[in-house]
Design brief:
Strand content: 5-15%
CATH architecture of one domain: 3-Layer(aba) Sandwich
CATH class of one domain: Alpha Beta
Radius of gyration: 29 Å
CATH topology of one domain: Oxidized Rhodanese, domain 1
CATH superfamily of one domain: Rhodanese-like domain
């Protein structure tokens, strides 16, 4: 769409000035008029583009609501405590007896702390990469151990959630190309594209996720791709959080960890 803006005003030029000064005055008026036209035209284009950009995300009043600890990854949730975080030292308690007025004892370790942490396909490995909040173009490189605003889910946590009766989340495969995947997952390879948060990919992915979740910003989303050296799922999770989804999970281990754990594979829903 092309807009033309005609501004019909002039600064009066005194006719009693010499011809040379009249021409100089007219030139100054022309420059001022051109600058003003460009400014007004730019403002008009920006105003027309704002509604399109707003379609890439939920309204601020909706976004970020309903945050939950779905996979037991929060320390205050039943069975919680992220498996990626080091176990904290057990608190010491004091007891007194007639023979020993001050005895410090350490309670026995909980059953959870004795459970071995399985590092399937390096899903827990620290590659020394810092968390990032921008879309990564080098998608075949080592990833961080955490993601800003999101939470990491492990193979054991995801397996337990899929086996339980509390299944209420979407598994999103962001890896490109045709391949077998984790059962009951949706294949949205565009979600893992690099670029920026206002591109056409963002609009497409937002429309797709909004349709799959029924517009529920609190619906848990789990993104994965090939494994711990694959950024597509990281990009997809960042895109979803920028859209306003509040329960975004990154399954860092991805397909490689799932297969190494000996778990079944199937073709994803396109």
């Amino acid at each position: 769409m092309r807009c033309r803006l005609d501004l019909h005003f002039r600064t009066p030029i005194k006719t009693d000035l010499p011809p040379q000064e009249q021409r100089a005055k007219a030139a100054v008026n022309g420059v001022m008029l051109g600058t003003l036209s460009q400014f007004v035209g730019g403002a008009l284009i920006l105003a027309l583009s704002l509604p399109a950009l707003a379609q890439n995300a939920f309204a601020p009043s909706e976004a970020g609501t309903g945050r939950v600890c779905y996979f037991g990854e929060c320390a205050n949730a039943p069975g919680g405590g992220s498996i990626l975080q080091p176990q904290t030292e057990r608190p010491q308690t004091e007891s007194r007896s007639p023979q020993n007025p001050r005895v410090v004892s350490t309670p026995p370790a909980s059953r959870q702390s004795t459970t071995p942490r399985m590092n399937y396909a390096d899903e827990l490995t620290d590659f020394g990469v810092s968390p990032q909040n921008f879309l990564q173009s080098n998608v075949g490189s080592p990833t961080p151990r955490s993601i800003p605003g999101g939470r990491v889910v492990t193979t054991d946590q995801l397996r337990a959630a899929l086996a339980g009766n509390r299944r209420r989340f979407l598994l999103i495969d962001a890896l490109g190309g045709d391949h077998e995947s984790i059962p009951e997952s949706y294949h949205i390879p565009e979600a893992g594209y690099s670029g920026n948060f206002n591109d056409s990919t963002q609009s497409y992915v937002f429309s797709t996720l909004r349709s799959l979740t029924g517009g529920d910003v609190a619906y848990p989303l789990v993104f994965f791709c090939r494994g711990s050296q694959c950024w597509e799922s990281y990009n997809a999770a960042l895109r979803a959080m920028r859209m306003g989804f509040s329960n975004v999970y990154w399954y860092r281990g991805g397909i490689n960890a799932w297969q190494e754990a000996g778990l079944p594979m199937s073709w994803p829903t396109q």
